[in-house]
Amino acid sequence: MDLAALAARLPIPEDVRRRLPLPAQQVAVVRLEGVIPPAGSGGARRTGITLERLEGPLKKAFDVKGLQAVALAISSPGGAPTQSALVADRIRGLAREKDVPVIAFCEDVAASGGYWLACAADEIVAHPTSLVGSIGVVSGGFGLQGAIDRLGIERRLHTAGENKARLDPFRPEDPDDVAWLRGELEELHGLFTAWVRERRGDRLQGDEATLFSGEVWTGARAHALGLVDRLGTLRGVVEERWPDATLVPVNGGRSLFGALGRLSGARAAGVEDVVPAALRTLEERAAWARFGL
C-alpha cells in the first residue's frame, strides 16, 4: 500500500492531511471492451479481451501513484471461458498484491464472460439499463454436409483415435458427440457458477435455478437479484467516494495504431486470410446480437 492509500484510511484531520506531502488521489480506469477471444486467435493480440493484451495495462493501472481504487469499465458479451478466468485471476492477484479495491462498472453489457470479469471486482455497479448476467455456457457451429453434397465434394478424413474428429461440421451430427459436448458444457457451467458463488456469496438473492439459468437481466433487475451491488455510473461513484480524485484512463481498449494495422493488413491479405477474418467478424457480431446490440 502506498502512502496516499494508507493516509486515506487513517482518521487524520483534514487540515493535517493537506500539509502532508502526499501524491494526488487517483482512480485508474481500465476499459474491458469487446468479445473475449481465445488466445492466439487471429486479431486477438490487437483487439478483444485476453490476458496477453491486458497484462501491461493492468499492471500499469495498479501502479498509479496515489491510487485509491481500480475501476473496470466493462462492455463485453463474453467469449472464451479460459481467457475470462485468466484475466479475472490476474485482476484478483494484483488487487491482493497492491491492497487496492477494485470496482466493476457494467456499461452496455456485462454478460457471460463479461460478467465473469465483473466478479473479479470487490464491488459491481451497473446502470439500470445495462444488460447483466447470462451465467451459462454456449457452443455453436454449422452443419455443412448438405452444402458439400450439393457441390459434389467428397469429404476425406483419416484419424488415429476414434474420437479425434468429434463434431466434424462436414459429417452428420453424431448423438454420442452431442452427449460429449453437453458434458463439457455442464462442467464449464459448474466452474462459472462456483466462481460467482465464491465472489458474490450471500449477496446473491433468489434461487440458483433462476440465477444460473443463462438469463440476462437489466441492471435494475440484476441489482434486485444481488448480481450487482448498486446502480450508478463510474463518474458518479468516484465523485461520491473520492471527490478530489482524478480519473486516470489506462489503455485497455482498441488503439488507433491497432486499427490502422488491421486496415493495412486486410489490404495486403489474400483470400486465405480474408475469409477467416470475415467469419470471426460474423461470430463477434453474433455475440453482440444475442443481447440486441
Helix/strand layout:
Blueprint: H1 3-9, H2 14-19, E1 26-33, H3 51-62, E2 67-76, H4 81-98, E3 102-111, H5 113-118, E4 123-126, E5 131-133, H6 145-150, H7 175-200, H8 208-211, E6 216-218, H9 219-224, E7 230-231, H10 234-241, E8 246-250, H11 256-268, H12 271-289
Parallel strand pairs: 1-2, 1-8, 2-3, 3-4, 3-5, 4-7
Antiparallel strand pairs: 5-6
Describe this structure in words.
Strand 1 (26-33), helix 3 (51-62) and strand 2 (67-76) form a beta-alpha-beta unit. Strands 1, 2, 3, 4, 5, 6, 7 and 8 form an eight-stranded mixed beta sheet that branches. The two termini are 40 Å apart. The chain has a domain at 3-134 and 215-253: 2-enoyl-CoA Hydratase, Chain A, domain 1. By secondary structure, the protein is of the alpha/beta class. The radius of gyration is 22 Å and the shape is elongated. The longest helix has 26 residues, at 175-200. It has twelve helices and eight strands. Residues 253-272 have low confidence and may be disordered. Helix content is 45%, strand content 15%.
